[in-house]
């Protein structure tokens, strides 16, 4: 049993101070945590883009929408498994080993990551990734129904 424990004794606080070099420009990073809502309508007020919502969800129901100014994360559940849709105005790279597929005449990319099916598509300037434990055909139907 320990009763009197001390940490960092003898370490001068000045070691943890940082002064930028003269002439350096210091920029503030305004990081905002996502806000979570129960409906897309509520979340839409926070987003800088139109949040795309599928009319077909393979029996999954919307549970929550987390949103920042430039992204939205829609979580659906069937009671056991989750279906997620991540939307962002910022572009990201599609894994190179993903298969190119076509949805409503647009290029999309399908693959698997850690056992989950993932489909990437760009729609109305928004990059969308749909993922879950569903067959490729179901993810494609969900993507087709986004509006």
TrEMBL record:
<dbReference type="InterPro" id="IPR029046">
    <property type="entry name" value="LolA/LolB/LppX"/>
</dbReference>
<feature type="domain" description="DUF4367">
    <location>
        <begin position="58"/>
        <end position="146"/>
    </location>
</feature>
<dbReference type="Pfam" id="PF14285">
    <property type="entry name" value="DUF4367"/>
</dbReference>
<protein>
    <recommendedName>
        <fullName>DUF4367 domain-containing protein</fullName>
    </recommendedName>
</protein>
<dbReference type="InterPro" id="IPR052944">
    <property type="entry name" value="Sporulation_related"/>
</dbReference>
<dbReference type="InterPro" id="IPR025377">
    <property type="entry name" value="DUF4367"/>
</dbReference>
């Amino acid at each position: 049993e320990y009763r009197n424990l001390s940490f960092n004794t003898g370490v001068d606080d000045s070691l943890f101070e940082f002064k930028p070099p003269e002439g350096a420009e210091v920029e503030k990073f305004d990081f905002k945590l996502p806000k979570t809502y129960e409906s897309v309508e509520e979340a839409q007020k926070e987003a800088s883009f139109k949040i795309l919502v599928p009319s077909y969800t393979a029996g999954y129901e919307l549970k929550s929408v987390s949103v920042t100014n430039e992204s939205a994360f829609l979580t659906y559940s069937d009671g056991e498994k989750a279906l997620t849709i991540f939307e962002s105005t910022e572009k990201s790279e599609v894994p190179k080993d993903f298969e190119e597929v076509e949805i409503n005449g647009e290029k999309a990319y399908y693959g698997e990551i850690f056992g989950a099916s993932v489909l990437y598509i760009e729609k109305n300037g928004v990059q969308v990734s749909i993922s879950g434990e569903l067959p490729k055909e179901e993810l494609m139907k969900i993507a087709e129904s986004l509006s």
